[in-house]
Every structure is written in structure tokens, then in C-alpha cells.
Amino acid sequence: MRPDWDQYFMEITAVVAKRSTCLRRQVGAILVKDKHILATGYNGAPKRLAHCAETGCLRQQLGIPSGERHELCRALHAEQNAIIQAANQGVAIEGSTLYCTTAPCSLCAKMLINAGVTRVVFAGAYPDQMAIDFFQQAGVEVEQLEYEING
């Protein structure tokens, strides 16, 4: 059966997530406008830094729950990397849709709002209700797509 556009882009997002170097959660994100992919991102360490597979995960070692103490993570989130990729290539993302395998956190939500993203479609939940609240306050359309992400 032919997927609709949301399913199509979520499938691509699931493939992007496979590049993740995070030991705890593989996340992929893509920015789309007018049915064209503008940028992609996955969660992992910044360029020229060792990946978590090489250094270990400090948050895991300290027993920090998902969604808390982001500042202790050496990785960038998938949404952040998608925004950075677009900026590095000079691609405007205002008016775009973000597809993400997991709902954005509140830090990423604030970045996406300021970048002008108008719609967020995600598959898996994330324990950060503040992000959803921010999107609602900013008038960003948010939709959880029933889609099973297979690793």
C-alpha cells in the first residue's frame, strides 16, 4: 500500500535515526517543506568529538532518567542537528514541518519555534510536557503519528 506523505517522511526519518551514535535512544529528524526534504539530523556527538560508543554515556552512568539533565549529554539532539545542517547549507526552514521519531524536548521546541517551524509530527512520546505546551502557545501544529519505529 502506498504511504501518505506523513508516513512517507516518517519512514525516511526512521532511516535517518539509524545513523545515531547515542547509546540510550536513536532519534532521527527531518525538516520538510512543500514535500521536499530540506535537512536531516540524528542525535550524536558534535563533529570531531568522540562518539558515546567510545566514551560511554555519563547520563547512563549516573542513572539520570530520560528527559532530564540534558546539559550532561555530549550529544546534540536530532532536531538541533537538522537545524544546524540547514543553517550550514543556507537553507531557510521557516514554514517547514519537522518529522521526528521522538517528540522534541523543551530545548528543541524553543529552537524550532524560533526557526519558524510551523508543524511537528512525531512517532514516539518523550517525557517533556513543557515542549508540547510551548508548541501550543506558539501556534505550532503538533501531531503524534501512529507509526512503529523499528531499529
Q: Which short descriptors sum up this protein?
A:
151 residues; alpha/beta; globular
Explain how this protein is built.
The structure is a single chain. The chain is an alpha/beta fold and 151 residues long. Helices cover 35% and strands 19% of the residues. It has a five-stranded mixed beta sheet, sandwiched between helices. Helix 5 (106-115) runs parallel beside helix 6 (129-138). The longest helix is centred in the first third of the chain and has 13 residues, at 5-17. It is globular. The two termini are 21 Å apart. The mean pLDDT is 93.
Question: What layout of secondary structure does this protein have?
Answer:
Elements: H1 5-17, E1 28-33, E2 36-42, H2 52-55, H3 58-61, H4 78-89, E3 97-102, H5 106-115, E4 119-124, H6 129-138, E5 141-144
**SSE ordering:** HEEHHHEHEHE
**Strand adjacency order, main sheet:** 2-1-3-4-5
The largest β sheet comes out as:
5 strands, mixed
Helix content estimate:
25-40%
Beta-strand residue percentage: 15-25%
Instruction: Tell me, briefly, the overall form.
Output: globular
